[in-house]
């Protein structure tokens, strides 16, 4: 994605890993689905000013990259 100049980062952090919950005694075993999703997801650009041409560019490049794996 970086070669295509598309901002991207991995994973959606499970809520139980946020600082507020740090001392509450939760573990990954308590939320296996959230942890699984965090390992298999990624963020792509999304914001109100994103133009249709940019959305199309992002989508076409994601399709291209995923077709190679």
Give the SSE layout.
Elements: E1 9-10, H1 32-40, E2 42-43, H2 52-67
Antiparallel strand pairs: 1-2
The residue-averaged pLDDT reads 92
Helix/strand class: mainly alpha
Q: Which percent range fits the helix content? A: 25-40%
Number of helices: 2
- State the end-to-end distance: 14 Å
Low-pLDDT stretches are none
As laid out across the biggest beta sheet, the strand order is 1-2
Rg, please? 16 Å
Report the CATH architecture.
Alpha-Beta Complex
What is the CATH superfamily?
Aspartate Aminotransferase, domain 1
Number of strands: 2
CATH topology, by name, is Aspartate Aminotransferase, domain 1
Number of domains: 1
Order of helices and strands: EHEH
Kindly estimate the percentage of residues that lie in beta strands according to DSSP. Answer: 5-15%
Largest sheet: 2 strands, antiparallel
CATH class: Alpha Beta
Please give a quick description of this structure.
With 69 residues, the protein is mainly alpha-helical. The protein has 2 helices and 2 strands; from the N terminus they run E-H-E-H.
List its traits.
single chain; 69 residues; mainly alpha; Aspartate Aminotransferase, domain 1; 36% helix
